[in-house]
C-alpha cells in the first residue's frame, strides 16, 4: 500500500492549517529557502515518526524542499491531525497516519516507513529507532535524530548496551529546543489541552505537577500564571529544591493526592499516579499526562478500581470509584497537549524543528564520520537557530570586542 490517511478530502483544510503554521515559523522557512536552492538532502530518504501536526508538516515540507523523500508515521496513535495528514499526502509525502490508530496500526505505520530503506531516521520517543534495530534496517541508516527527552533516554540505553548501530543527534538536548519547547511549549500546550478537554477554571484550583524537569517547570509556571495554587512532587532532591526556591509547595504524591483538583504528570517515568493515590483523591479530580508514553498515570489501576466508567466529554473519561467519588482521566492518559489540543505553538516548534532540519543536513554531510552514539547538536547550530529567531523577532544584541574575547579565554586579568 502506498500510503494511508483518514480522509484525503480534508486536504484543502489541512493546507490552510499548514499555511497558518508557516506564517509563525520564520526560522524554518528561512532554512527552507536555502534548502530549496542548495538541495542538501538530494536523494536522501528520511523515515520519520513524529506527531503529525501542522508544525511537523512545515518541517517535512522543508526536508522535501531540500531534496529529501520523506516517509511519515505518527509518534502517537492519537495525536495525528487528519486534515494535515491529508494535505501532506497531496504534497507527495508518503504518510501512514490517522487519529485513533490501534496499537497494531501504529506499529504497522512505523514498519511501512522503514520499508523505504531510509538513510535517516527522525524519531520522537524512540519507537522508530528501536524498531529499525529490531528489524535489521539499522545497518543501511547513515544517522538519526531524536526529538524528545524520553527518546534520548531510550537511545542512550541502546548505545550503553552496544546495540546502537548509527549516530543519533539528540535534538531534544539543544539549548534552543529544550529550554523553549519543553518549558514554554509544553507549559502552554498542556494547559491548552486541559482547557479544551474540560473548560474548567484554573484560577484558585490546587494544581499538582509531578516532575520538575524542563517540562514540569514550564507547566508549574503557567498554571501559577493562571491563578492556580501549584504543588510539585519530585524524587530528585535538587529539582525539588529548585521547586521550593521557585515558590512552589513540595510534598509527596500521597499528600498531594488528598488536596489536588488537577494533576499533571511530567516525569518520564511510570506509575507516578496509581490506585493508592486515586483512592485518596477528592471527588472530581482531573488527571492528565504530559509525558511521552501513557504509563505515568496507571490507567490499568483506574480500570481495575472503578465501579463504572463513561466518556463524559471528548477526551474525558469519568471513572466512578467504590467510595462514590469520580475522577476524570484526560486523553486516555496519553500526552494531553497533542491529543486534546494541537501540541506546542508553532513559534516554539520553529526552533525545535530548525534544529531537526540542520541536524539532518549535518548527518547527510558528516554522518559517516560520527561513531554510533548519541551526539549533541553542535553549539554553532544551536547559536545559529537562536540568532535566526532573534532576527525574526527584530531583536539585536551586542558582540564581543577582541579584547573581551581574549579576556574570556585567558587567566590573566589585564
Ligand atoms: N505541535 C507539535 N508538533 C508539537 N508539540 C510538541 N511536540 C510536537 N511535535 C510536533 C513534541 C515536542 O517537541 C512532542 C515531544 O514530546 C516534544 O519534545
Question: How would you describe this structure in keywords?
Answer:
414 residues; Rossmann fold; alpha/beta; 16 strands; 18 helices
Architecture blueprint of SSEs:
Layout: E1 4-5, H1 11-22, H2 26-38, E2 45-49, H3 54-65, E3 69-73, H4 82-90, E4 94-97, H5 103-114, E5 120-123, H6 127-134, E6 143-146, H7 149-160, E7 168-170, H8 175-178, H9 181-198, E8 206-210, H10 214-225, E9 229-233, H11 237-245, E10 249-250, H12 253-259, E11 262-265, H13 275-278, E12 285-289, H14 299-305, E13 308-313, E14 316-320, E15 326-330, H15 336-339, H16 346-366, E16 374-376, H17 379-392, H18 402-409
Parallel strand pairs: 1-4, 2-3, 2-5, 3-4, 5-6, 6-7, 7-16, 8-9, 8-11, 9-10, 11-12, 12-15
Antiparallel strand pairs: 13-14, 14-15
Helix pairs in contact: 1-3, 1-4, 2-3, 2-16, 3-16, 9-10, 16-17
This protein binds (1S,2R,3S,4R)-4-(6-aminopurin-9-yl)cyclopentane-1,2,3-triol.
Structure in words:
- The chain is α/β, with parallel strands linked by helices and 414 residues long.
- It has two domains: 219 residues, 3-Layer(aba) Sandwich (Rossmann fold); 156 residues, Rossmann fold (3-Layer(aba) Sandwich), CATH 3.40.50.720.
- It is 45% helix and 16% strand.
- It is built from 18 helices and 16 strands.
- The strands form two sheets. An eight-stranded parallel sheet has the order 1-4-3-2-5-6-7-16, sandwiched between helices. The chain has an eight-stranded mixed sheet with strand order 10-9-8-11-12-15-14-13, sandwiched between helices.
- The protein is globular.
- The mean pLDDT is 97.
- The structure holds (1S,2R,3S,4R)-4-(6-aminopurin-9-yl)cyclopentane-1,2,3-triol.
- The site of (1S,2R,3S,4R)-4-(6-aminopurin-9-yl)cyclopentane-1,2,3-triol has 18 residues, from α3, α9 and α16.
Amino acid at each position: 500500500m502506498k500510503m494511508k490517511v483518514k480522509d484525503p478530502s480534508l486536504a484543502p483544510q489541512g493546507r490552510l492549517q499548514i499555511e497558518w503554521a508557516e506564517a509563525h515559523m520564520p526560522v524554518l522557512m528561512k532554512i527552507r529557502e536555502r534548502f530549496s536552492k542548495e538541495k542538501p538532502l538530494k536523494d536522501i530518504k528520511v523515515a520519520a515518526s513524529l506527531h503529525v501536526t501542522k508544525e511537523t508538516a512545515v518541517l517535512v515540507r522543508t526536508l522535501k524542499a531540500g531534496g529529501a523523500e520523506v516517509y511519515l508515521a505518527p509518534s502517537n496513535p492519537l495525536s495525528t491531525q487528519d486534515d494535515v495528514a491529508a494535505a501532506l499526502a497531496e504534497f507527495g509525502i508518503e504518510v501512514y497516519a490517522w487519529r485513533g490508530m490501534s496499537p497494531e496500526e501504529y506499529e504497522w505505520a512505523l514498519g511501512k516507513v522503514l520499508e523505504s530503506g531510509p538513510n535517516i531516521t527522525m524519531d520522537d520517543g524512540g519507537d522508530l529507532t528501536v524498531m529499525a534495530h529490531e528489524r535489521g534496517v539499522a545497518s543501511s541508516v547513515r544517522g538519526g535524530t531524536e526529538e524528545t527527552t524520553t527518546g534520548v533516554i531510550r537511545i542512550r540505553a541502546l548505545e550503553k548496551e552496544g546495540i546502537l548501530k548509527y549516530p543519533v543527534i539528540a535534538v531534544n538536548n539543544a539549548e534552543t529546543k529544550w529550554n523553549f519547547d519543553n518549558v514554554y511549549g509544553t507549559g502552554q500546550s498542556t494547559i491548552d489541552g486541559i482547557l479544551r478537554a474540560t473548560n474548567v477554571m484554573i484560577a484558585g484550583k490546587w494544581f499538582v505537577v509531578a516532575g520538575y524537569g524542563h517540562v514540569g517547570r514550564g507547566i508549574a509556571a503557567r498554571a501559577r500564571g493562571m491563578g492556580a495554587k501549584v504543588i510539585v512532587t519530585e524524587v530528585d532532591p535538587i529539582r525539588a529544591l529548585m521547586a521550593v526556591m521557585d515558590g512552589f509547595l513540595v510534598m509527596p504524591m500521597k499528600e498531594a493526592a488528598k488536596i489536588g483538583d488537577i494533576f499533571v504528570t511530567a516525569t518520564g517515568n511510570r506509575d507516578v499516579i496509581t490506585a493508592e493515590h486515586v483512592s485518596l483523591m477528592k471527588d472530581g479530580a482531573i488527571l492528565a499526562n504530559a509525558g511521552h508514553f501513557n504509563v505515568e498515570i496507571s490507567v490499568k489501576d483506574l480500570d481495575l478500581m472503578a465501579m463504572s466508567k463513561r466518556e463524559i466529554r471528548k477526551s474525558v473519561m469519568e471513572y466512578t470509584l467504590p467510595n462514590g467519588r469520580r475522577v476524570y482521566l484526560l486523553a486516555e492518559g496519553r500526552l494531553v497537549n497533542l491529543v486534546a489540543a494541537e501540541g506546542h505553538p508553532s513559534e516554539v516548534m520553529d526552533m525545535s524543528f530548525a534544529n531537526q532540519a540542520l541536524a539532518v543536513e549535518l548527518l547527510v554531510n558528516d554522518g559517516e564520520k560520527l561513531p554510533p552514539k548519541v551526539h549533541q547538536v553542535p553549539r554553532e547550530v544551536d547559536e545559529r537557530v537562536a540568532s535566526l529567531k532573534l532576527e525574526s523577532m527584530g531583536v539585536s544584541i551586542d558582540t564581543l570586542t577582541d579584547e573581551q574575547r581574549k579576556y574570556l579565554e585567558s587567566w590573566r586579568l589585564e
